[in-house]
Amino acid sequence: MIPHHPKPGTSTTHSTQAVTSPPRPSRVVPKPIPPQQTLDTRTYQINQLKRRYPSHKETSLPGGTGTSLSFNLVPSDPDFPFDLPQLECDLHIPSKYPKSPAKLHVKNSDIPRGFAINIEKGWDKLVEERKGGGGTLLSLVNGLDKRLEGLLSEEKAETVKLTIFKDTRHLDRQRVEEEEEEESKTEPVVVPPVRRAYIPLETFTQAQIAEAKARRAQEVRQLEARMGRLQHYHRSSDGIIYTLPLDPKKRAELPGELKGVMSVQLVVPLLYPLQNLRVLLNDVEGGKEGEELAEGVEELFSRKAGELVKKEGSEQGEKMGLVAMVNWLAQRIHLLVREVEVEVREAEHAASVERVGQVDRGHLHVIPRPPEWGFGDDGTESSNYDSEDEDDEGGAELGKDSEEMGGSPLPTRTIEKGTAMLFPSIELHGIELLQVSVLSLNVKCDRCKTLNEVTGLKNNLDKASSCKKCATAFTVGYRQELVHMNSTRAGFIDATGCTVADLLPSTFVPTCGKCSHPSLGLVSVRGETTTNICRECHARFAFKIPDVKFLDYAPGMHTRLPPTSGPRRKTEKLGLHAGEPLPEKGSCQHYKKSYRWFRFSCCSKVYPCDKCHDAAEEHINEWANRMICGWCSREQNYSVESCAFCGRSVIGKRGSGYWEGGKGTRDKRLMRRGDKRKYRRVGGGETRKD
Questions:
Q1: Which among 177, 242, 559, 674 is most buried, taking Cβ atoms within 10 Å?
Q2: Any idea what DSSP says for residue 304?
């Protein structure tokens, strides 16, 4: 080997030589320009775009003013946050290019026009910036690709829609003149002024007002104590309107518009009980008809409440408070609905009689409706006709018979919404009707897709529960329908926060096909044949459910509406698993004792802290309203100290270091033998004897 002898004064280590002075201007060479670009700049730059986008489409502009080049620009940013697969560009290159600038037109139909205008303005701004620098069309397209995220994040530009209206004022003027001529020919009809009767305001004495205020305060305290902790309870700021839960006793007898009523607003006047109570029913369905029916029930309750208050002064009257009024409404709301329907029919009949009376037909006589055809009181037993006639007619009340025989009441008209449960290939032998009285389901959580069991669902009763894995709350309700030879739909399921997955063993109530007697509940499941004997006529019947289908009834679910809020953002996939800790338990180099990640509201991205956000993003950070626990990796609303799921602290506390309650120890019995502190100062504290 040849020995290496370094020169004296030099170092043996190898170092990289650095340029200490800038090069001379004479050595700087400009970027070479192809001769073809110098000869024909326009053709050269168009060929560059053609090679870059092979699937282009080239056409000539009308009048030969230039060339139109259509191509699809795919965003090159791998972290592009918008759900935009490609940008459909139509570039108009004039014949006098580069003296006249090129114009860009965005042809995407899946984004609003306002965002397309933002992109076109961004192109014009980019052309203006690089006007003196000699940028090519390809470099301008690449620059647009880099700025695409910022342009789509800007506020949508305002657009104006021009509509052409036909001038029909001359036709309107001619029609008005004809109407005026007809009115001039007819004699004017003088309408007498309507005189309204004067109704004086009701006045009260000071003693009555003081007594009413005292009673109101007492009953309001009782109402808050009884219902203050219920789910739908709410009290207005002025203490007049109270939102209370309402559970009608006979919900099945209510019309379909009022079956979904779960709460009611009780209006307690300041001078109650001198002034009548009023109620407002919530969750009324059925549109205008449902609102009119609800208004009739509300007015009738107000009158009934006033009558009950007036009866308190008599000997037979009993004192009823606000809680008793609400219970009275829950027990008798179906009777109030019947009375409202009777009043509506009587009003329609009176209006028809009045219309017939106005017509000059003296030979016609109007026969009033028999009173026994309407709804009577449940407590009345008197009748004006023979009881034998009723037996000859053979009529029967299905509701009472079904309740006495143990069966559930028959469901009425059901609103078609939610998830329909169908039995397409059901087999019924000796059965005329079949209904599901108690339903059990398997539902899938919308958040973590975990299957959960929901049992004991009954008609028009919602059941709330939570996912066994991610603890997300969900609600399931069931509305019955009858299954027979012409209908295989068993009802509708209203699921919130979950999706129906499968049918579990449920309770079915079949009705005998010979005697129409409902049987007791029978537990069955898909694929099982259930056979039994009628307890009334002893006839054998059987049914089988080979398969079950769940069909979503959502109005307009397949119609594609135009976007209104810009491109949809992609959901960020972090690859986390619930129950497992985050990397480094969520801590970062800036905060070692912070065990969580934050989802910042400015960009909806996740970072361990604000400094990590500022280092990765170019915009100013905003307060984070959600966080991910570093111990269990579950996303939740922002909490100051602890996780809402696992309960562990997400911030480091004082006194939790290595020695202060941590992994370290000063107990010499637990120290390892190699620790130098184990035998330090052994016997060192003893004083030496002289």
A1: 242
A2: H
Q: Is 80 exposed, middle or buried (0-12, 13-18, 19+ CB in 10 A)?
A: middle
Cα separation, 71 vs 73, in Å, equals 7
369 vs 342: CA distance, rounded Å? 12
CA distances from 34 to 37, 38, 54, 99, 351 (A): 5, 7, 22, 20, 94
Start-to-end CA span in the chain (Å) = 71
Helices and strands, counts by H and E, the chain: 11, 25
Q: List the one residue out of 286, 306, 300 whose CA is nearest residue 333.
A: 300
Give the tens place of pLDDT for each residue, 616-642.
998 888 888 889 999 888 888 888 888
Mean pLDDT of the chain: 77
Name every residue whose Cβ is closer than 8 Å to that of residue 610 and which is 6 or more positions away in sequence. 598, 621
Query: Would you say how long the chain is, in residues?
Result: 690
Preceding peptide of 269 cis, ω within 30°: no
Q: What SS3 state is found at 297?
A: helix
**Sequence letter at residue 529:** T
Q: Tell me if 585 sits within 8 A of 608, measured CB to CB.
A: no
Residues 19-31 as b/e (b if ≥16 CB within 10 A, e otherwise) read: eeeeeeeeeeeee
Return the axis-axis angle of helices 41-52 and 137-153, rounded to nearest 10°.
Answer: 60
Handedness of CA 476, 446, 425, 544 (dihedral sign): negative
CB 68 within 8 A of CB 59: yes
Q: Which SS3 state, helix, strand or coil, does residue 580 take?
A: coil
Q: Is 66 helix (H, G, I), strand (E, B) or coil?
A: strand
**Amino acid in position 328:** W
Cβ neighbours of 345 (radius 10 Å) = 14
Model confidence at 293: pLDDT above 70: yes
- The per-residue DSSP string of 193-262 comes to PPPPPP-PPP---HHHHHHHHHHHHHHHHHHHHHHTTSTT-EE-TTS-EEEEE---TTGGGS-TTTTT--
Q: How far apart are CA 469 and CA 446, in angstroms?
A: 12
**pTM for this model (two decimals):** 0.30
> Which pLDDT does position 140 carry in this prediction?
87
Please calculate the CA angle 232-238-242 and round it to the nearest 5 degrees: 25
Cis peptide bond upstream of 273, omega within 30: yes
